[in-house]
Amino acid sequence: MEKDAQDIAYFVSFCIEQYKHAKGLTGEQAMRELDKYGVLEYLEEHFEILHTQSHQWILEDIDEFINIRKEEGKR
């Protein structure tokens, strides 16, 4: 695995773990939720910006991203 791809994989794994703990979910539940709303792709795509932020900021960003996707689904 290339260094950049490995860094992104580690970052996404970190985000999954943080989200799981923050929401009191199992790993499977967290993955299902994040996958359902395209969060994993979002994290990979915006790695360069997101990985410089605090874990709290990232969790808030993930929540906002999911809420936007939920609203879009209601339309």
Question: What order do the helices and strands come in, and which of them pair?
Answer:
Blueprint: H1 3-23, H2 27-36, H3 39-45, H4 47-50, H5 55-74
Helix pairs in contact: 1-2, 1-5
Count of separate DSSP helical elements: 5
Inertia-based shape: globular
The SSE order reads HHHHH
Which structural class should the secondary elements be placed in? mainly alpha
Tell me the radius of gyration. 12 Å
* Mean pLDDT across all amino acids: 94
Q: Give the CA-CA distance, first to last residue.
A: 40 Å
Q: Give a quick account of the main beta sheet: strands, pairing sense, barrel closure.
A: none
| Unreliable parts | none
How many extended strands?
0
Strand content: under 5%
Helix residue percentage: over 70%
Architecture overview:
It is a single chain. By secondary structure, the protein is mostly helical. Helices cover 83% and strands 0% of the residues. The protein contains five helices and no strands. Helix 1 packs across helix 2 and helix 1 crosses helix 5. The protein starts with a helix and ends with a helix.
Short key terms for the protein model shown above:
5 helices; globular; mainly alpha; 75 residues
Structure in a nutshell:
With 75 residues, the chain is an all-alpha fold. The chain has helices at 3-23, 27-36, 39-45, 47-50, 55-74. 83% of the residues lie in helices and 0% in strands.
